[in-house]
Write a structure and sequence with these properties.
globular, mainly alpha, about 75% helix, single chain, about 280 residues
Length: about 280
Amino acid sequence: MKNFDMKRCWRTLRWYVSENKKNLLAWTTGFGIGFTFVQSALIWVTNGHITAPENMTSPANHYHMAVATCSSVLYVITLLAVFMSCSVISNPLKTKQKRIAFFMLPATNVERYITMCCYAVVIVPLGIALAALVGDTLRALLFMLMGEDWAWGIRDMEELMGNKPSASIWSQVSEEITSDLVFAWLCSLFALGGIWLRKHSFAVVGIALLTLTGLTAWSLTKLIPMLDISGETVLFFAKYGDLFISLAMVAFIVLNFWVGYRLFKRFQIITPKWTNV
């Protein structure tokens, strides 16, 4: 089999999800319960101790401020959980028996690779997002039964941040697309690390990313004062910066998944200690 077939790929994905459904259900349920209890505990501790800004007009400002602040912390944790799920993309194939079963499937390498990516980069993150939403809803219901207002964390977070001034609707859409593409690039980067490394892929990619970010920021602080940047150049990048970033992110996302596929084709049944190839 050399040609890609959508039906065969779909059957492979269903088999893969079926083989890992217990882990998927356990981790999703655990994350949802943990989200509920951690958010409830944080709100319980901070409620009444944080002053609400003027743009939060609800009668129970202090409670909504606590919900917004704690939800921001949980939002970051949720993002980290998504990145971790991408970084363990090859974990379902850690054992020799599971690798043999997976590579014996009547499917092409492309179909197997798409199956792995769909499970780790799409299905598991969707499960995490759903668990966070259910956990937030359960927390809101619990506090409502205790006499507080109904307050969803995501709504109060948006109210806390307020509406950012923007030149046009296109600017708002452009900023949203850019942020989504940066998020997708980070997911593809952690997935690439998970395909290459067998152990500690999340930590290795995270440390490398932080190091690269720090070096880039340091280089810019040294380089920019040395450049004679005109006002027209600043206006040009202010106008088209999001477009260039979006195009760069698309290119890097494609590159990451392409390199990941090249590494996947070199997977071994008996792997080295630290890598999959």
